[in-house]
């Protein structure tokens, strides 16, 4: 009988079912994992390339910001004011969608941003044009992206905006409120930047043959609001919107039937269907003029019709002259 202490240990070679039982080679574990690792590395590099192509070199920061935004929306960790303005949604979604149009399509040039106060209320008064109200959206983006304090602009919109499904909700969340003195004064008193387009639909829907010719500024309600709240009035001149959707005609009978101020005919609408909504790539300049101070007046000055008229006319003339100067300074509309 053999001594158990001298028993030989016979090594057992493992093998996979179906492998050559006579083979004495052990499979290389590293080689077994090399294919999945290569696929993973290739997929990762491809994903990074796609992200960099569409989001830019700082795609990692943008992805992180997107994830943080999603977390805030899911947990309710964001603020909405009494008028429905949602700055978190505006900055991370609405402006992000508009920014390529602002930067690459219209190539917006901003002048005079130093005339926008660093803090406190101010009333921005601008010309209105372009068939569709892109000028308001671009003005908001211009102030937010170029102002050192990245201030938001609260737009005053016509009642038609708030009668339109889906559009009304987006407008509220983007900071637009009804164009009435009560809301304007409330915002100005609380230190907000407020923008008004006194021409209204008369400016927005004027034919291309009358481009850059200001329409009436109404009865000066915006001046009265500035006088009551003691905020400066900042004239704003916008060049480029007129060429984005050149208005060639207006189907008035159908517009009246639909209850809208005009039904536009442009070089692309309605001929190209939904593609006609793509604006032409005009070159934009948004210039903010020197503020018109209202500090020297008391609140009762808003009840003086002659003073209101004079200030309204002063602002209108400033914007008109600036428009002419900007047109001379812009060599090509596109």
Describe what you observe in this structure.
- By secondary structure, this protein is an alpha/beta fold.
- The chain has a domain at about 85-245 and about 285-330: 3-Layer(aba) Sandwich (Glycerol-3-phosphate (1)-acyltransferase).
- The chain is built from 11 helices and 9 strands.
- It has helices spanning about 30-55, 60-75, 85-105, 135-145, 165-175, 180-190, 200-205, 220-230, 240-245, 250-260, 305-330; strands at about 110, 120-125, 155, 175-180, 195, 235-240, 250, 265, 285-290.
- It has a 7-stranded mixed beta sheet, with helices on both faces. The protein has a two-stranded antiparallel sheet with strand order 7-8.
- The longest helix is centred in the N-terminal third of the chain and has 27 residues, at about 30-55.
- It is globular and about 85 Å long.
- It starts with about 30 loop residues before the first helix and ends in a 5-residue tail after the last helix.
- About 30% of the residues are buried.
- Residues about 1-25 have low confidence and may be disordered.
